[in-house]
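Chapter review: from sequence to fold.
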Amino acid sequence: MILTSIFTRNIFKRTIIRNIFLYMTFASFLLFSSQAQALRIIRDAEVENYMQTLINRLIVARGRKANSIKPILVDSPAFNAFVADPSHIYIFVGAILNAKNSYQLSSILAHEFGHISLGHLYMWKQEHNNNLIKAILTGLLASAGMMIAKSGEGALVAIQAIMEMYQADNNASSRGQEISADMFGVQTLEMAKIPPQSIVDIFTILKAKTNPLNIKTPLWIMDHPPTSERIRQLKLRVKQLKTYKYESKQSVYNYRLIQYKLRSFLAKTESLKEIIKTTHDPYVRDYVNIVYLYRIGKTKQSLRLLQNLIKHNKNKPYLYDLAGQISFEGNMFHSALSAQLVAIKKIPNDPMILYPLAQTYMKLKGKSNYKKAMMILEKVLAQDKSMPFIWKAYAVALSNYGKPAQSQLALAHEFWLLNKRADALTLAKKAQKSMSRGSKKWLEAQDIIDISL
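The token string follows.
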């Protein structure tokens, strides 16, 4: 089931952190950064689990614990990925759709894993702090008009020279980190027994997509090395490494199914018609048609086709998840429950399978169903407490079950994650008044109060 949400944590792409003070006033910085925080995040059990498998292969080869780094899917056509903390890799849908197979996508993941392992996150933080010190440039920019009026073009040239000096310094450091992450990535591929040539292949695609005319940009402006130079260095390194066989046809096909799923839910419906008409794969054609019918509101027709697809593909558990989603949104809650129970039996403990099941129990109403929803959501929160919409659903379940104080506390968690600190503080204080002083829940509310002040 594909869900989308706006992610509003304090996350900045590293290029923004490095350069923002060098060419924007502080007021502009505040405006720009608030926009940069909002990312449209996709949550889908099948796609996330597939990405997790790719990441685990890389990090385990390097001696890291499986699942210690998780994927976060960003709904954007950009050919991009980035890291903002040591535990997640943000991968854009555009990167998934442009890569031709999982080995090429693994090359992108291996590069980002390199940034984490080589300590670049700490370096970026330090550079950001240094740039804050250099924010005196903000004052120069703000008074640039006055200086130019008094001193003519010479003042403008001086300001530009200072800006170029600082930006060139930052970008030179950034380019060095990108090259080191490339080299870490290519070695990681070899350790994971993935053909190192894959990283050359994906950069070749990147070059064709981002600079088809081969336009040269002044080096001091660039915070990444020229793609052609990265390809050259990677080719030299790949020659020194052991090679491995390319993916099996089945593995490539499985990757294509992930791509078709993302296109089915995220592309314009008109483009889905073209896929349905032109594809020679009956499974892909039926799957895309099912999602197309669902998206244009023909729920019953979609479900009939889906039931037939399930009949011939009982080994595909995520089809049951899809049946649950379509039935739920068609207000057929008992049908949704039946499909979701099969899905959870085949894929136990997956948060994004458990969550819609809890939603269905709440729609069915009744104290016993609210209790089941509450218990399921507690299971989800035991795995991951960082999803605001889970806290919101949990708050609703608690309220309906007759636990208003705990419901307020759950809402406090939701608001805190959404950066609504004042609301979080108010709700935590309100919830605490109805709790025994020193109890586990009272202390939980106190934690929110302390970090919200």
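Two observations follow directly from the output. Strands lie at 3-7, 39-43, 70-74, 81-85, 88-92. DSSP finds 23 helices and five strands in the chain.
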